[in-house]
């Protein structure tokens, strides 16, 4: 299977999802409605709903994907989009996925309200899934987002931050939603608890790998792939895996960080130091370790021969790594 085929497996499902998203987030107030339409028109690869659909397809075997699985995929994307709106306000991002962010297009108040509205909509649809276990699993994600933002805010420009703290923060900000969504999809397929947990572990490690590669893209990636201006994390003092690894090779990077890049050339100098270090290679190696852990977590004992959904779940890891090439 070629990497491009991952999304072809779920192409029809994602087309339905994109159509449904527009109607699901339709707000009564024109500004909120315009903000919501603006967000979803920006696109993106829809990696989170793709995983929900792939897990559903694999765990249901020959049965068709249920409306509840489709709705969970939609809820997942709404929650993710809501978190991006709030992140952009906090990080003062001007663009996201090549389009102007909501707070830049309108103002911070509208952006915060739009994010709150999307979280509220997701909660409403989540409650209507009529699965208490899924509600408990997914609703915790919203508190994890807040936990992640608080943790990130407390360790900005802090070179004493450990890799363990970085992984914890990355879990709360990114991996929690992916892990819980995969588990929620398995729950809707009525799998046993231990199998549900396997999909949670799969999603957790895929989510961590996704965040590590995204953090690498902040240093080396294209504006198109990243979805926000290059160097945003570095400038905001959000120390990520490639930066933490680079500090080992170049202690002088610490001076630039602790002085919060006070000179115009400091960011450029910091990026050069990161490029000259082993930071990017070690970060990629760490992402690969998490991808392998994700694949190992997948249950194969009941797999159907040549199951495209299973291969899709495996190849998602390769897709994530491909983003840095």
Automatic annotation (TrEMBL):
UniProtKB keywords: Chloroplast, Isoprene biosynthesis, Magnesium, Metal-binding, Plastid, Transferase
Keyword Chloroplast: yes
Entry's Gene Ontology BP terms: isoprenoid biosynthetic process; quinone biosynthetic process
Bilayer-spanning residue ranges: none
GO MF annotation terms: metal ion binding; prenyltransferase activity
Cofactor(s) the protein requires to work: Mg(2+)
Domain of life per record: Eukaryota
Pfam families, per database record: polyprenyl_synt
SUPFAM superfamilies in the cross-refs: Terpenoid synthases
Family, as annotated: Belongs to the FPP/GGPP synthase family.
Protein name: Prenyl transferase
Organism: Trichogloeopsis pedicellata
Organism taxonomic ancestry: Eukaryota, Rhodophyta, Florideophyceae, Nemaliophycidae, Nemaliales
């Amino acid at each position: 299977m070629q990497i491009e085929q991952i999304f072809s497996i779920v192409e029809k499902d994602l087309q339905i999802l994109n159509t449904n998203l527009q109607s699901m987030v339709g707000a009564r107030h024109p500004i909120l409605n315009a903000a919501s339409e603006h967000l979803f028109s920006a696109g993106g690869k829809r990696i989170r709903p793709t995983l929900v659909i792939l897990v559903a397809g694999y765990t249901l075997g020959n049965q068709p994907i249920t409306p509840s699985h489709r709705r969970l995929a939609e809820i997942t994307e709404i929650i993710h989009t809501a978190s991006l709106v709030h992140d952009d306000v906090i990080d003062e991002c001007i663009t996201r996925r090549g389009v102007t962010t909501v707070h830049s297009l309108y103002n911070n108040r509208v952006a915060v309200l739009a994010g709150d509205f999307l979280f509220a909509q997701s909660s409403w649809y989540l409650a209507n899934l009529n699965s208490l276990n899924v509600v408990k699993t997914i609703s915790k994600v919203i508190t994890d987002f807040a936990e992640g933002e608080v943790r990130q805010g407390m360790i900005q420009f802090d070179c004493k931050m450990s890799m363990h703290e970085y992984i914890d923060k990355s879990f709360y900000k990114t991996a929690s939603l992916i892990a819980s969504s995969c588990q929620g999809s398995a729950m809707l397929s009525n799998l046993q608890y231990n199998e549900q947990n396997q999909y949670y572990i799969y999603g957790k490690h895929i989510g961590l790998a996704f965040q590590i590669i995204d953090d690498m893209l902040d240093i080396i990636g294209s504006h198109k792939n990243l979805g926000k201006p290059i160097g945003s994390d570095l400038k905001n003092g959000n120390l990520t895996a490639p930066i933490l690894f680079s500090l080992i090779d170049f202690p002088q990077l610490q001076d630039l960080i602790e002085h919060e890049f006070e000179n115009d050339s400091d960011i450029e100098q910091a990026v050069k130091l990161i490029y000259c270090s082993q930071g990017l290679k070690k970060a990629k190696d760490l992402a690969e370790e998490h991808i392998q852990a994700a694949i190992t977590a997948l249950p194969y004992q009941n797999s159907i021969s040549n199951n495209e959904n299973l291969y899709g779940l495996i190849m998602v890891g390769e897709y994530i790594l491909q983003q840095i090439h």
